[in-house]
Amino acid sequence: MRIDLPQEYHDRPLEHVGKVYAPQIVGPAGMFGTAPYQHSKLTLRELEAARYRTALINGCSACSAFRGARDFPGMFASFDGDLENSVWSRGPAPDEEFYDNVENWRDWPGYSERERLAIRYAEGMGLAPKEIAEDEDFWERAKAAFSDEELVDMTYSIGAWMANGRALHVLGLDAVCAWTPASEAA
Predict the structure, then answer these.
(1) Which domains are seen in the chain, by residue range?
(2) How many Cα neighbours within 13 Å face the side chain of 28?
(3) Crossing angle for the helix pair 113-127 and 136-145, nearest 10 degrees?
(4) pLDDT for residue 181 is more than 60
């Protein structure tokens, strides 16, 4: 870790960081980071496609280990979210093959067109924002597949994960910040 934390907070660094170091910033960042899961109109697979590609780009080990279907119940319990009215309930859950192929999104036949575009968009925002902004082929395909509301939804969701995942990673908090699967939390 790049910052000092009392030993009792080593397993939950964000709690300490959010209470002590920058509560007026970390608290809203946490709300921004969890809002996509509660309010996105995308399917679980579409959201997870973009989220996971962002996690890999950020290098955040906690975000890369997170699995939407498995970990949402525990995460929602931590911020009193409404799991049943969230993206968690929208469509089938991704399996491990889905996650394993995110970096191979162009060739793996298991993605829908919308999932492929979500991964491409996350990759563009994370690695080459100027290029994705000017990629007319991408925008033509994206506008054909998603409504403007969904595109704004996805843009700000990816932005939330970029900000929070990168902050966790550069401070070294991602090594200890992890979600306990609901089955283990009980």
Answers:
(1) 7-185 (1.20.1290.10)
(2) 3
(3) 140
(4) no
User: CB neighbours (10 Å) of residue 172?
Assistant: 13
Q: Quick: pLDDT tens for 84-140.
A: 999 999 999 999 999 999 999 999 999 999 999 999 999 999 999 999 999 999 999
Q: In angstroms, what is the C-alpha Rg of the chain?
A: 16
Structure tokens at 73: 């119940």
- Cβ neighbours of residue 177 closer than 8 Å, sequence gap 6 or more: 12, 13, 14, 62, 168
**Mean pLDDT computed over 49-67:** 93
Contact, 82 vs 72, CB < 8 A? no
Task: Give the whole-angstrom CA distance, residue 86 versus residue 126.
Answer: 25
**Which two tokens mark 18?**
């959010």
User: How many CA atoms within 13 Å lie on the side-chain side of 5?
Assistant: 21
Residues in Cβ contact with 37 at an 8 Å cutoff, skipping those fewer than 6 apart: 47, 68, 72, 75, 76, 81, 86, 87, 88
pLDDT of 168? 87
- Write the Ramachandran bin of 91: left for phi over 0, alpha for psi from -120 to 50, otherwise beta: left
- Going by the DSSP 8-state scheme, the letter that residue 21 receives in this structure is I
